Amino acid sequence: MTPTLKLALDLSFTHTEGAWRNPGSWVNYPYYTHPAIWEDVARVAERGCIDMVFFGDGVGIPDTWEGSIDAAVTWGLQWPRHDMSPTIALMSRVTRHLGFGLTFSPTYMHPYYVARHVSSLDHVTGGRMAVNLVTSARRSDAANFGFDELMEHDRRYERADEFIDVLKGLWSSVEPEAILLDTGTGVFADPAKVHYLDHHGEFFDVKGPLNMLPSPQHHPPLIQAGASPRGLISFARNADIVFVSRPSAAGMRTFRAELDRHLADVGRAPEEIQVLWPVHPMMGENVEHAKELEAQLIESVPLEAGGVFMAHKSGFDFSTLPGTFTIEEATAAIEAANGSTAYLPKMAEMVGPGGLLTKQMFQQLGRETMIAGGPTLYGSATDIADQICDLHAETGPNVGFMVSIINFMPRNVVDFVEKVVPILQQRGVFKTGYGSATTLRDNLGIPLKLRSASS
């Protein structure tokens, strides 16, 4: 059996939301800005044949809750967040195959800057970069880019689609064959193969071309995340990798089938997109012990911190709601504020149709989300490997898992690589080496099919 499982490690929140004080975190290392821990983590991840390490990002300190940064600063929620580009460059120097995912916001950023930045990192890493493009619903981010209000949900995706058209156009503006380096004639490049972009759209005007050499991957893989109907249309049009959370194998299959239908609508095949399901391994001696550990971690998070976290993620200040409220009231309020309703299905499950929610229930959900970060796999290393194998078998080809590393850094990385990965390899579902692939795109098996911006 040829191994088909793909594994990435989500290292976005290893130092925030109280994780910095958990037992086993940052032992023998300075705090997260020091390069030593990231170099060691990269070595461990590559030893485990991990496909990619992933860094989410944000550029503001959360201030949605009560209109202030005070609570977020007090509890260390979603901050500090440094630009991980220099860290990725360091990690790439101690590895040969490990890929790297870095996050940018097409809602606020400019595609020329992102195209140049990511292409530069693709050169430095030897073709191992992926770019995660997230339509942003966080007010603190918006304010730092000069936006007074959040952009309406579907408009964010319209801007993202145009952003990606420009991004891909810039990456194609210098053909690989353009560079001649003819020492005899002194000709450096062929101007017939270096092209203006001349893009004039609703959101961007970009002349081009990109003023740099084509990167090893030419087009680093594009990651998109989310699950809204408008998001699915964008994913089918643009993405190479989709990162989306579903609570069960049935939900994963349903999403994959819906995505494949959208792919067919735009003439793409299912194998052109990998789906990475987020999972959070909570490892213990057994399932019961793992759940006890999780309960202890949740209880260690202040209740207010849960509210701050959820307000930031949704872009809506839940502190303004009354003591009790219905899902319908919350939905209407969030949509009126152009916030994200992604967490409302979980809230609806707590009370059922027509049920009442309280602020305390909302804050508790925030605490649980901070600790888990995705569907949780409980138990020993064997238990966790069993669950990964079952989910992989039930959700079909062209899928993998984004393993959330939250609570114990770097212990969780070491435990997963040294205890879970060998079991997956022994069962033949995960590779024992990187093979002949030299780029992240090749390693993931994602074909590069260049399409015009209008397709």
TrEMBL record:
InterPro entries: Diverse_substr_monoxygenases, Luciferase-like_dom, Luciferase-like_sf, NTA_MOA. It holds the Pfam family Bac_luciferase. The keyword ATP-binding does not apply. It comes from the Bacteria. Keywords: Flavoprotein, FMN, Monooxygenase, Oxidoreductase. The keyword Flavoprotein applies. This is Methylene-tetrahydromethanopterin reductase. Transmembrane segments: none annotated. PANTHER family: ALKANESULFONATE MONOOXYGENASE-RELATED, C2H2 FINGER DOMAIN TRANSCRIPTION FACTOR (EUROFUNG)-RELATED.
